[in-house]
Amino acid sequence: MTPLSRSPIDRRPQGESDLLLLFGVTGDLARRMLIPSLFALHIERLLPGELKILGTARSSGDTESFRRLAAEALETYLPGERRPPDQVTGFLQRLQYVSLDVTDPNGFRRLSEVVGTPRRPVIFLSTAPALFETTIAGLRAAGLAGVDARIGLEKPLGHDLASSCAINDAVRTSFPESSIYRIDHYLGKETVQNLLALRFGNILFEPLWNSSWIHHVQITVAETVGVEGRAGFYDGAGALRDMVQNHMLQLLALVAMEAPAHLDPTAVRDEKVKVLRCLRQIDRAALGHSLVLGQYTAGAVSGTPVPGYEDELGKPSSAETFVALKAHVDNWRWKGVPFYLRTGKRLPGRYSEIVVRFKELPHSIFGERGNPLEANQLLIRLQPEEYIRLMVTAKEPGLDRNGVRLRQVPLDLSLTNAFTGRRRIAYERLLLDLVEGDPTLFVRRDEIEAQWQWIDEIRTACSAVGTTPRRYTAGSWGPAAAMALTERDGVSWYE
């Protein structure tokens, strides 16, 4: 596939940033993803030479303690060959730390004294959304807001449309929309970006990418873990808001979007939001055959016994840990094509995958002497492996005296094998784009609001009819009703 070349339209040539300000830098996301990603960019000399990385959090400490934390994060989450000692030393010299309680105005005054007058500051908020408004006000008072600054917002951005609008309104008081970068880390994955190359860089697929040739689409994001240390957040959110509202709807939009006029941020995001606005509402009448919610009970995953969700939580809960739904995009391209979405915790395997199943041939020339023909399928695996695999029908070797034997075989593009070089953490690309000012892989406000509107309508319908999660055993593929959701259409989940 031809490499993607994005338009430089939205990049800012006026000068490099000299400050990256990270909020919530002692948290799990920073240690697992942000610090290793920034280190990788550092050793490849992709960060501006004068860029200072300033971490803040409520935790007491100083620059030396932050550097020790960063060194420990690199040692824990990067293999030895990817952290040369001399490069580690140079990277740590970029780091500074300021203890900051965002609810204390005096903290921002101290922050202002430390940073001085930075050039095009870049800010990354990885804090609780409830603190966003206070943080924005503090940044404005410290002189770190405005048109020359950029701000990245980690999810979740609210718990419904109203709260999302409130957060965006608060951010908008101090930053123009062009300077706001809403992060969905799935968009940083290489295979997700390859969706655009696959569809719009190959004449083989685009003429077939419509309801005339595609029978249905499946999108699965399966996890083997439970809620881990996120129980407090997750119980208030559930899988609909935690996974479907953002990651899965973004994947659906990329699969279903029309070709943009150009590969620039505005054109790409314009086409995604059109898809999101065409999603058919799942109302009370449609719930019974379009949505299944589940919650795991005690079971075993990969042979290891695990407790149920309520056991982990320590109290009864109506939060869903599993969602299966059937969506429709009501436009000319996709009229009548179901999109089956499935996500859940404590499932048998961990993977994210898109399956495009084409329609069956109208007639088989092999007749009764041949095996039944299977429909072609395009498999796009996002994680843990990254590959694109087209299932095609081929003849098995032999003399065929008892009939032609056919079976499906893969035409396989493994991104790991096809391309040399290290597979990047999604946050490497996203942080670099944030520093450089390229918004293509970030979510625009109208996108996130269209996503929330659709999810809110589903939740309102569930509340009206009293929908509660069905129980499923940990280590299974969710409630039996999830299988029935597809089977009533003559479809099986791809596993």
Total strands: 17
- CATH architectural type of the largest domain: 2-Layer Sandwich
Structural class: alpha/beta
CATH H-level superfamily title of the largest domain? Dihydrodipicolinate Reductase, domain 2
Helical stretch count? Answer: 15
For the largest sheet, list the strands in their spatial order: 16-15-14-13-7-12-11-8-17
- In whole angstroms, how far apart are the ends? 27 Å
Provide the gyration radius in Å.
24 Å
What name is given to the CATH topology of the largest domain?
Dihydrodipicolinate Reductase, domain 2
Overall geometry: globular
DSSP strand content: 15-25%
State the gist of this model:
By secondary structure, the chain is of the alpha/beta class.
Question: Can you walk through the features of this model?
Answer:
The chain is an alpha/beta fold. It has 2 domains: 19-182, NAD(P)-binding Rossmann-like Domain (Rossmann fold); 187-487, Dihydrodipicolinate Reductase, domain 2 (2-Layer Sandwich). It has 15 helices and 17 strands. It has helices at 28-43, 63-77, 85-92, 105-115, 132-141, 161-172, 190-200, 231-256, 265-277, 284-290, 309-313, 415-418, 426-436, 445-465, 480-487; strands at residues 19-23, 52-57, 95-99, 122-125, 150-153, 180-182, 214-222, 291-297, 299-301, 304-306, 322-328, 338-344, 351-358, 377-383, 387-395, 406-414, 470-473. Strands 16-15-14-13-7-12-11-8-17 form a 9-stranded mixed sheet, sandwiched between helices. Strands 3-2-1-4-5-6 form a 6-stranded parallel sheet. Strands 9-10 form a two-stranded antiparallel ribbon. Strand 9 and strand 10 (304-306) form a beta hairpin. Helix 8 packs across helix 9. The longest helix is centred in the middle third of the chain and has 26 residues, at 231-256. It is globular and about 85 Å long. It starts with 18 loop residues before the first strand and ends in an 8-residue tail after the last helix. Residues 1-14 have low confidence and may be disordered.
